Amino acid sequence: MQSNLVNKKIIVTGASSGIGERIVWHIAKNGGIPVMLARSVDKLKSLQQVIDETFRTTSFVYQVDLQNENELTTVMKQIVTEHEQVHGLINNAGVGVFDYIKDMQWQDVERMFQLNVFALMRGTQQLLPHFLKHQEGHIVNIASQAGKIATPKSAVYASSKHAVLGFTNALRLEINSDNVYVTAVNLGPVRTNFFATADPEGDYQKNIDRYMLDADHVGKKIVFHLFTRKREINLPWWMELGSKFYQLFPKGFEWILNKQFKRK
What we know:
Layout (H helix, E strand, L loop, with lengths): L8 E5 L4 H12 L3 E6 L2 H15 L4 E4 L5 H14 L5 E4 L14 H29 L2 E6 L12 H20 L5 E8 L6 H5 L4 H6 L6 H10 L7 E4 L1 H12 L1 H7 L1 H4 L3
Parallel strand pairs: 1-2, 1-4, 2-3, 4-5, 5-6, 6-7
Helix pairs in contact: 1-2, 1-8, 3-4, 4-5, 9-10
Keywords: Oxidoreductase
Family: Belongs to the short-chain dehydrogenases/reductases (SDR) family.
EC number: 1.-.-.-
């Protein structure tokens, strides 16, 4: 058990499934107190019951549509009011739709930026004064390797995650003298229901199935680094290595991996 998590209250957005669910599980397993946010309150309550029975711990559930500014603002204020101190915020909720730019639907563009970027920024801004007041906290933003290397059919999704990286890096610099940590998590493809929306035909998943990350491994890794001064978590390692080569030799990298980039 990680002693630095015991009795720490940690907000997790998009907690009802996928990576968020596994993050919540490992927080509870290590003595932390998950504060779970999602639209599906039934899924949250089912998860709450399981972890409470398994780990004999306390957890909290809040229903919210993160794309609704009023709902998000109300819930964040409610959490701060109801809890003397919140120790962490993991901005995990996100969505992706893979389309060529010529085919993209504007409602998909707006949805990705509303959830991936604006909700993340808004929630962080609302909780930041609370963390600074207590001189303690950890903000973890789930970005993506796509934010470092854009590929065909991921223009909008990659743009949204590039925005998350920029926001996260600036936030870290702004509060680097305070006892509030800021971490970006850059992931390759993870085996979750994310692809039900991003890749409804399933072709991309078939092409990259052997390379997909396990959601439980990702959740465990994120929780392991909570309340440590970890700048970035990059998974898988070889994809992060590729992003570094891409920064140095972009033209050659695109030429070599042209076929792989078009697998979507």
